[in-house]
Design a protein that fits this description.
Strand content: under 5%
Radius of gyration: 20 Å
Number of helices: 4
Shape: elongated
Length: 171
């Protein structure tokens, strides 16, 4: 057993295969689209004639989803190799801490989106004690932001898997 290993058990071989990476990318896309489906469903229902209340989804409800989507873009634009200081292929100094700072800002955007959706749920729908068809607007917002956050994590992990089948041209 190598002393540089963190876990006792070896990593499964299927984890670094191309099919696992492809499945992770498709799963992330499905989670992202399912999250926005919940929110778009709530937004269209709030403006329809079936909505029996005067409460509608406004721009305040969209802000957490926008923050989460921007956080997903920021997080998935960073390669895992830039987070380590061992990368000599990038020009400039301090690439690792700059990448870590941008990654932190991306996660902060996503966490702020999720916290914002919970705040909108509580302040706009729970405190005034709206019944369930109206309460669904806030619940759908929290579900959407949670699924966007989960899809971002799945996509980042699946895109940055260390694998043996890539060909490195570095000398």
């Amino acid at each position: 057993m190598s002393s540089t290993r963190l876990w006792r058990f070896p990593r499964p071989a299927w984890l670094t295969s191309t099919s696992a990476r492809t499945a992770g990318v498709y799963t992330a896309g499905a989670l992202f689209s399912l999250g926005f489906f919940f929110f778009i469903d709530a937004a269209t229902y709030s403006k329809s004639a079936l909505n029996g209340s005067d409460v509608h989804i406004r721009f305040v409800d969209w802000i957490p989803g926008i923050c989460s989507a921007l956080g997903m873009l920021v997080i998935n634009s960073i390669e895992k190799s830039r987070l380590s200081a061992e990368s000599f292929s990038y020009s400039g100094t301090g690439v690792a801490w700059k990448a870590r700072l941008v990654l932190f800002l991306g996660f902060a955007l996503m966490a702020g989106g999720l916290a914002g959706s919970v705040a909108v749920l509580v302040l706009k729908y729970v405190v005034p004690e709206y019944p369930f068809p109206t309460l669904y607007f806030g619940i759908a917002n929290v579900i959407a932001n949670g699924l966007i956050m989960l899809s971002s994590v799945v996509l980042w992990i699946s895109q940055n898997m260390e694998d043996d089948y890539t060909y490195n041209l570095a000398l």
